[in-house]
Amino acid sequence: MGAIRLEGLEKWFGDVQVIKGIDLDIADDEFIVFVGPSGCGKSTLLRMIGGLEEISRGRLVIDGRDVTADPPSKRGLSMVFQSYALYPHMSVRENMGFSLKTGGAPKAEIAEKVGDAARILKLEDYLDRRPKVLSGGQRQRVAIGRSIVRDPTAFLFDEPLSNLDAALRVEMRYEIAKLHQALGRTMIYVTHDQVEAMTLADRIVVLEYGTIAQVGTPRELYEEPANLFVAQFIGSPA
Ligand code: ADP
Ligand code: MG
């Protein structure tokens, strides 16, 4: 579960094409990172996968099922954003359980799933607190917790750490790597930070204005960049 295939994906905003035919096979449990400069289409592509942005052309297939026209709720994916938008009047526990509650899950099941996520994210001591008393890193963990409780087949992250200071970014990067190990789930992670990409990714997809400049392991990209754009972006000596 969690294999995602992108077939000739295109996105047009009016007569401007921002995603120009992307083909990619993402394996089950793979940690894929989309990198590229600001405006190259990373968020748009991620939102197309998540269903928040309509696919103009092409096909999206998840575990063999064509979900191109499906709404976000039917794709089994969960998105974590840079602005985590927690509900300020709810406790951490309520924030994490909210989507399950609105989905009609029984109380005992919500408690169990929130408890499990809190353990993984080291939030057990904070469950009864409000978001405003938490640190930035803890708030981001709560946002990730909201995704975990929904048990998605894949997680989609859009620059989840870019609001955090440098030290916290390093710590959270490590946390996200551990989360991937613990959950064994497909993760698609967008960043413009090369170091984040190199340390987290099984494979990196370098985007250059709506097309794929190169796909490969961090090592492949570093040692054999396909062109100057990739070399400059990855910071290798080519
Ligand atoms: P990135 O996340 O890599 O910075 P985006 O995916 O946000 O890039 O944007 C890619 C391009 O698409 C940019 O030129 C941006 O201005 C344009 N774009 C994004 N969303 C819209 C929209 N809703 N309407 C028109 N243009 C958009
Ligand atoms: Mg973006």
TrEMBL record:
Statement: the UniProt record of this protein carries the keyword Ribonucleoprotein: no
Signal peptide: none
Name listed for the protein in its UniProt record: Glycerol-3-phosphate ABC transporter ATPase
Organism: Roseivivax isoporae LMG 25204
Gene Ontology cellular-component terms listed: ATP-binding cassette (ABC) transporter complex, substrate-binding subunit-containing; maltose transport complex
Recorded family membership: Belongs to the ABC transporter superfamily.
Domain ABC transporter: 4-234
GO MF terms held by the record: ABC-type maltose transporter activity; ATP binding; ATP hydrolysis activity
Keyword set, alphabetical order: ATP-binding, Nucleotide-binding, Transport
